[in-house]
């Protein structure tokens, strides 16, 4: 597994890097046979250290965890525990999908835009009906089954996931509803 361990405005020492590689490697190897890479970023938020970890699995799924604590090692350990809990919760599904899927998830390129918040004039009407594009980025849309999409959304902790439905070959959306259930849009 490839590791990318970095700090935002923090110097990451060799001892912390070794600790991260050993601990995260142990956690991920329990649940996934072939993880491809892991990105761990440390940063400061006021008096606390923040640790964000993202692990990409060979099946194309991504697991993410984030934690904060007053000590940098404690922040990583909390993050590692959250990752362990996520992967343990989805262990059976990860292994079942891994057996069914012989090849990694196919990804399709798409454009992603960030739009400026609408500013209304004194009457509460927007100045224009055309939104202002603040940024344009490239994003990837995975080709998944509905069950895999729900699992990916849960693993990433995302409120919504756009994916290409493998069985119908069309774009679909799964999202977390306010009542706690999962919604699925299949046009």
From TrEMBL:
Residues 130-183 form the Sigma 54 modulation/S30EA ribosomal protein C-terminal domain. It holds the Pfam family Ribosom_S30AE_C. It is found in: Cytoplasm. Coiled coil: none annotated. Keywords: Cytoplasm, Translation regulation. Signal peptide: none annotated. Interacts with 100S ribosomes. Associates exclusively with 100S ribosomes, which are dimers of 70S ribosomes. PANTHER family: 30S RIBOSOMAL PROTEIN. Required for dimerization of active 70S ribosomes into 100S ribosomes in stationary phase; 100S ribosomes are translationally inactive and sometimes present during exponential growth. Belongs to the HPF/YfiA ribosome-associated protein family. Long HPF subfamily. HAMAP family: HPF. NCBIfam families: yfiA. This is Ribosome hibernation promoting factor. It comes from Ruegeria marisflavi. The gene is raiA.
């Amino acid at each position: 597994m490839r590791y990318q361990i970095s700090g935002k405005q923090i110097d990451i020492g060799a001892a912390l890097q070794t600790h991260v590689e050993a601990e995260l490697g142990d956690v991920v190897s329990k649940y996934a046979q072939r993880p491809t890479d892991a990105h761990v970023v440390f940063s400061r938020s006021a008096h606390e250290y923040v640790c964000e970890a993202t692990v990409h699995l060979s099946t194309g799924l991504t697991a993410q965890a984030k934690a904060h604590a007053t000590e940098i090692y404690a922040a990583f350990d909390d993050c590692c525990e959250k990752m362990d809990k996520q992967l343990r919760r989805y262990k059976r599904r990860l292994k079942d999908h891994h057996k069914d899927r012989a090849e990694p998830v196919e990804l399709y390129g798409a454009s992603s835009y960030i739009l400026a918040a609408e500013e209304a004039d004194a009457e509460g009407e927007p100045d224009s009906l055309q939104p202002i594009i603040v940024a344009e980025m490239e994003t990837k849309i995975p080709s998944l089954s509905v069950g895999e999409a729900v699992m990916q959304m849960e693993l990433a902790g995302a409120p919504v996931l756009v994916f290409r439905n493998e069985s119908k070959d069309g774009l679909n959306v799964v999202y977390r509803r306010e009542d706690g259930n999962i919604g699925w849009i299949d046009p």
